[in-house]
Amino acid sequence: MDYPVIEEGGFKYIETKGGAQNLLLLHGLFGALSNFASILQHFGNTYNVVVPILPIFEMPIRKLSVSGLVDHVTAFVEKKRYGKVHVLGNSLGGHIALLYALANPERIASITLTGSSGLFESAMGSTFPKRGDYDYIKKKAEDTFYDPKVASKELVDEIFDTVNDRNKAIRVVATAKSAIRHNLRERLQAIKAPTLLIWGKDDQVTPAFVGEEFHERIANSRLFLLEKCGHAPMMEHPAVFNYHLEAFLKKWLIGIVLRT
Q1: What is the chain's pLDDT, residue by residue, as a tens digit (260 residues)?
Q2: DSSP state string for 192-254
Q3: Which of 29, 252, 20 is closest to 159 using CA atoms?
Q4: Three-state secondary-structure class, residue 102
């Protein structure tokens, strides 16, 4: 099912309104709504799945940072008057999810991270992306996945257009540098919410050891490492990803029932 992008109050987002529990999805630096297609399809009718579009290319450049994007998410959740949210983030979205959870622990029901930055990441680097070379961008996109065929022409074209737009490319670099500066290694012990970690064993951007360190530093966490999987498990192995996520969310709901 396709959900329309809603624009209101300075926010752009998708909202399925399929259930009482809010599942907030945060995309990565080069993320697109299509990255979460399998999650929207699987959970859209049973959860209120919400995907705010992060204003990386619209926010005033002086405010553009990981912290600025966290502020945007905070304002969005307040605007929508959500109660607690199950927050899920991929790549940069995971980093934002963690910072949001640290700043707003009372609003967090659970956290799911997949290929999250915040400890170590090795993507296109913190320098200006190589422009004008389609094959280079195609190879970088393919390296994101274990199976290079997952990097569709539409995905490669979108990334190529982004890095060849000087304004957008500058914003990509500024955001990437901000993420590197906001290392969370010494703050993760403060995360108390139930946390699910789903990582690709073949992730070249945030390698498997990053998921393992998150697991070591977040006390109430569980880690699943997926075989033949890169930086976006929800795209490469959607059925397995959704299985683990559904089991995790059901366990959280059962815990709520038992405590009441």
Answers
A1: 589 999 999 999 999 999 999 999 999 988 778 899 999 999 999 999 999 999 999 999 999 999 999 999 999 999 999 999 999 999 999 999 999 999 999 999 999 999 999 998 875 444 455 667 899 889 989 999 999 999 999 999 998 998 899 899 899 889 999 999 999 999 999 999 999 999 999 999 999 999 999 999 999 999 999 999 999 999 999 999 999 999 999 987 666 544 43
A2: -S-EEEEEETT-SSS-HHHHHHHHHHSTTEEEEEETT--S-HHHHSHHHHHHHHHHHHHHHHH
A3: 29
A4: helix
Q: Give the chain's count of helices (H) and strands (E).
A: 9, 8
**Which domains, from first to last, does the chain contain?**
6-259 (3.40.50.1820)
Phi, psi (degrees; rounded to nearest 5) at 94: -65, -40
**What is 153-188 written as a DSSP string?**
HHHHHHHHHHHTSHHHHHHHHHHHHHHHHS--TTTG
Give the β-pairing of 85-90 and 48-52. Answer: unpaired
CA separation for the pair 29, 91 (Å, rounded): 7
Q: Map residue 41 onto helix, strand or coil.
A: helix
Residue among 165, 218, 156, 230 nearest 193 (CA)? 218
In a 3-state reduction of DSSP, which class is residue 23? strand
pTM of the model: 0.93
